[in-house]
Design a protein that fits this description.
The protein is 17% helix and 27% strand. It is of the alpha+beta class and 254 residues long. The chain has a single domain, classed as CNF1/YfiH-like putative cysteine hydrolases (4-Layer Sandwich), CATH 3.60.140. Strand 9 (121-127) and strand 10 (133-138) form a beta hairpin.
Length: 254
């Protein structure tokens, strides 16, 4: 069965981050950021990492610099992409400014990967038998399109991959219409009727089912208990618009 865990805080540099302990033994240092200890103001208060949501560019850059420092790389070695709710996977070494993608994969030690979210799922994939790892942005559109399976194609053997599913909107907090629910009616326990034509959608259940279907053993799937509902600790697009973005950040440890 997948394992649900509670993330603990840890101070790194100027930030309090939430380490992903389940991948340490495989040589990956990873954490989830929250919305505190950055320099953004207003709706983006304070550690907004998204440069596409209307925040001040200088504030976003300083926030990203703090994240790079916390993961132990120069700012220029913190790799992000322009996420478009698709299935494109990019090798980190091929990412340039404003590269479109929703997953980044690497096996290099001198850079860190970051995927940005604010209700969607951040997913970390780590190969236990090689230096391969990836971060994946998985909202409902990406899940419906197969972004998890596409990302796993970049690993030699999905049975050797360990997955971490980070904070996202909860089943209780995510009401959707039939145009969304119809994509996931075949996923057990993922869609619950909520009156009229509305449903509640469990993104974590969808992701877990897709990971296992693609070959990842369910015992190698770890899920964060934290949710984005309300936007108080982690940014939530449903709770407030505009809003910032938090990140799942990972690097291959020396």
């Amino acid at each position: 069965m997948p394992r649900d865990v509670t993330l603990q805080g840890e101070v790194r540099g100027l930030l309090n981050v939430h380490p992903v302990e389940s991948v340490r033994e495989f040589g990956v240092d990873a954490f989830v950021t929250d919305r505190f200890n950055g320099v953004s103001v207003g709706a983006y208060d304070a550690l907004n990492l998204g440069d596409h949501v209307g925040d001040n560019d200088g504030a976003v850059e300083e926030n990203r610099r703090r994240v790079a420092e916390a993961i132990g790389v120069p700012r220029a070695r913190l790799v992000t992409v322009r996420q478009v709710h698709g299935t494109t996977v990019r090798e980190a070494r091929d990412v340039a400014t404003a590269t479109d993608a929703d997953a980044i994969v690497s096996d290099e030690e001198d850079l860190a990967l970051a995927i940005l979210v604010a209700d969607c799922l951040p997913v970390l994939l780590v190969d236990e038998s090689s230096s391969r790892f990836a971060v994946v942005h998985a909202g409902w559109r990406g899940l419906a399109a197969g972004t998890i399976a596409r990302s796993l194609e970049h690993f030699a053997d999905a049975r050797r991959v360990h997955a971490f599913v980070g904070p996202s909107i909860s089943l209780e907090g995510y009401q959707v219409g039939p145009e969304v629910a119809t994509h996931f009616t075949d996923v057990p326990h993922a869609v619950l009727a909520d009156g009229g034509d509305r449903s509640r959608l469990d993104l974590r259940q969808v992701a877990t089912t897709q990971l296992v279907a693609a070959g990842v053993p369910d015992a190698q799937v770890v899920r964060s208990r934290e949710v984005t509902d309300g936007g108080e600790i982690f940014f939530s697009d449903r709770a407030q618009r505009p809003c910032g973005r938090f990140a799942l950040v990972a690097r291959r440890a020396s």
